[in-house]
């Protein structure tokens, strides 16, 4: 099957939790466009956090109903929306599952910024409380509904940690050998031992235990996608109309590294590298995010399968190399600033992503055209930027220093 | 140092979270008796669950202030008490830490029954929400207080799972080998891959990730005790006065296997074995629980140490063997009933507990005298028993059947 259409007999009712967010919104549109029936549940928490941080999306995103009405006007396709706080409104959430009877639930409904999760005790506690209760309530409601729902969850490459010299990170499960009492060696496959680097990443490690348990006890069908850092802004669908534009985070909390560099260069702000920039990270373009999710939906596990874990990334890069590339493309200078995170200054990273490749993904890799598309978006909305929000000021410990360039 | 006294220069301020419960209460008295300064925090949730389940402790436990006043009267030692719901009253909890400045926090403040955690969506959700938020709030408050507090946590042997044929379960960390890309083998030590058997056990696996993270990021000193099934009722201290008596759970939710068998035999109720009784479990006497916790406090990790994990158990037994032993001792018949849990019908279990042995623990193992002490307690309070509360009726899935004997 081609990735841009779906045949009528594989049409699915898909509930997208967090469908108003940076990944959730383009995913909802893409799956609607290929012919699925989409319902979005979102409590608009990401927009509320914009208010809290006094840092809006660089792109002028429209209210959810303006977005949905524009989508209907342009494509003729309807997407239903429910404003439910899944962590705290279980009964309401269950009722929607029982009435909508989805085939698939895609779960983006977690607080997803590492710096935000480290800002203060309040932010740590919100992240743990929200993420644990949402994921658990989703699993609990699936079992309570007695429906055979395929759960697709957005996890993170960050659960693996980065201390894996010479070991190519497998997709979720690690082959290992242990020695028995009698000296005999046994091969086993285990969940890759996690080493998360922030409270946010830690909650995604905890999610894995919830998935493992509900899969074992209740045969829930689950696909967990360990996603790299997303870059890019728009997809084919969000590009159809200005009212469909996707959010673009440039601030020190929600702005992710490649997009942040591109935005900094576009507005004439130094490219801020934390520490030496020796960190190596995994990346994926937003257009591939939505394709991978489609592939995950089209290749569900059976009820007897263990949790499927796919690495949702297409390439790895050293942060300093990205900074140099963008500096070369744009002429903007690089500022090496303190690293507000407690992490290894340098690391190698080799990652398997065979599963998506075997399902037909043709990865979009870093190229000048797509980098320039981000720069173009950033330049267009330059006047909306608050430069004071650019530096990363959320500190991992009291010993760390904010990532502010010297003036 | 002897285990029944403490020297003045090692006297510690110890905060016991959940200090009104089955393990927390005798631990508080024991540590007070040996000379430490004890503060109890408890929201009395276990007593409230008694109300909910309409199943009281078989022993007539006294209100917390009656207990504490009796302790003062008998020993001259004061224990302070705060009624705080740590999951939901973070500010109050932090304030008590800041004013009491404890050297040690012992964390018993979790919902600790596997059957209770599986009763219904409401009970699953309560267990996850309570246990995750309490553990996280404790860690978060320790960091926010800037005090160098040693956290001792009551975990469970249940995080290991029971599928370890031929492998002696190590204390928390597993030696394993992985193969690198170039064929080279690397030895690594990892957190033992968990395989919890209920929502309750799953939360204790999640706790381990919280401990690993806060230890790594904030150098919090943590000892995690993976405890077996506790048996027995009273300790040296709770035996001093009837008003100090410890709770004894005999109901299908909170009654644990050995104590439940002894109580059933004492009141003339068939000894109910779930399934074949081929399950092998780890056990510890309540008197050893309090000694182990003392040893954990007296042997704290340094700030540079990783999380200390000790297996807090002294022996393993097959459930059917225990039933036969008690049947032989008491003449009561055994009833093989359906297993309400989804678990392996039979398993082997070999466990290391070298760390406590190396610190001087002289384990109490199953002996007739101590078994008869439990029977004596059960006989004494026989009239308080509600026989309808004895069977285990909380089901792991809709396919399971309650553990009710045929009549």
List the helices and strands and how they pair.
2 copies of one chain form a homodimer.
Chain A: E1 13-17, H1 24-33, E2 37-41, H2 45-53, H3 64-75, E3 80-82, H4 90-100, E4 104-107, H5 114-118, H6 121-145, E5 150-156, E6 173-179, E7 185-191, H7 199-218, E8 221-227, E9 229-231, H8 257-267, E10 271-274, E11 280-285, H9 286-298, E12 308-312, E13 315-318, H10 319-330, E14 334-337, H11 354-358, H12 368-380
Parallel strand pairs in A: 1-2, 1-4, 2-3, 4-5, 5-8, 8-12, 9-11, 10-14
Antiparallel strand pairs in A: 6-7, 11-13
> Based on DSSP secondary structure assignment, what is the total number of beta strands of chain A?
14
What is the CATH-assigned architecture of chain A? 3-Layer(aba) Sandwich
Order the strands across the largest sheet of chain A as they lie in space.
3-2-1-4-5-8-12
Question: What value does the average pLDDT of chain A take?
Answer: 95
What gap, in angstroms, lies between the N and C termini of chain A? Answer: 55 Å
Task: Provide the β-strand percentage band of chain A.
Answer: 15-25%
State the secondary-structure class of chain A: alpha/beta
Element string of chain A (H = helix, E = strand): EHEHHEHEHHEEEHEEHEEHEEHEHH
Using the coordinates above, name the CATH class of chain A: Alpha Beta
CATH superfamily annotation of chain A: NAD(P)-binding Rossmann-like Domain
């Amino acid at each position: 099957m081609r990735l841009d259409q779906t045949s009528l007999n594989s049409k699915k009712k898909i509930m997208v939790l967090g469908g108003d967010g940076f990944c959730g919104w383009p995913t909802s549109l893409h799956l609607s466009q290929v012919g699925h029936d989409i319902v979005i549940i979102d409590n608009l928490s990401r927009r509320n956090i914009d208010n809290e941080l006094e840092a809006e999306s660089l792109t002028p995103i429209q209210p959810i109903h303006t977005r949905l009405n524009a989508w209907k006007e342009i494509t003729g396709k309807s997407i239903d929306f429910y404003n439910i706080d899944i962590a705290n409104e279980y009964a309401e959430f269950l009722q929607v599952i029982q009435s909508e009877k989805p085939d698939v639930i895609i779960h983006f409904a977690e607080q997803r910024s590492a710096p935000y999760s480290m800002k203060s005790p309040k932010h740590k506690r919100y992240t743990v409380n929200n993420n644990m209760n949402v994921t658990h309530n989703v699993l609990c409601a699936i079992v309570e509904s007695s429906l055979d729902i395929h759960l697709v969850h957005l996890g993170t490459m960050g659960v693996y940690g980065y201390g894996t010299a010479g070991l190519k990170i497998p997709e979720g499960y690690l082959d290992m050998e242990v020695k028995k009492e009698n000296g005999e060696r046994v091969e086993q496959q285990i969940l890759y031992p996690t080493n998360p680097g922030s409270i946010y990443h830690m909650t995604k490690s905890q999610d894995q235990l919830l998935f493992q348990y509900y899969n074992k006890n209740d045969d829930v069908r689950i696909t967990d996608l360990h996603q790299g850092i997303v870059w890019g802004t728009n997809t084919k669908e969000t590009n159809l109309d200005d009212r469909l534009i996707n959010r673009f985070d440039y601030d020190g909390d929600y702005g992710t590294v490649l997009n942040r560099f591109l935005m900094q260069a576009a507005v004439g702000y130094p490219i801020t590298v934390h520490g030496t920039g020796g960190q190596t990270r995994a990346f994926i373009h937003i257009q591939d995010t939505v394709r991978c999710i489609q592939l995950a939906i089209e290749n569900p596990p059976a009820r007897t399968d263990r949790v499927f874990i796919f690495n949702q990334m297409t390439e790895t890069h050293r942060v300093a190399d990205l900074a140099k590339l963008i500096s070369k493309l744009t002429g903007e200078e690089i500022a090496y600033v303190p690293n507000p995170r407690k992490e290894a200054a340098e690391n190698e990273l080799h990652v398997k992503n065979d599963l998506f490749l075997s399902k037909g993904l043709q990865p979009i890799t870093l190229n000048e055209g797509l980098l320039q598309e981000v720069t173009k978006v950033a330049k267009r909305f330059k006047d909306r930027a608050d430069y004071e929000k650019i530096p990363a000021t959320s500190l991992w410990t009291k010993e760390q220093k904010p990532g502010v360039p010297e003036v």
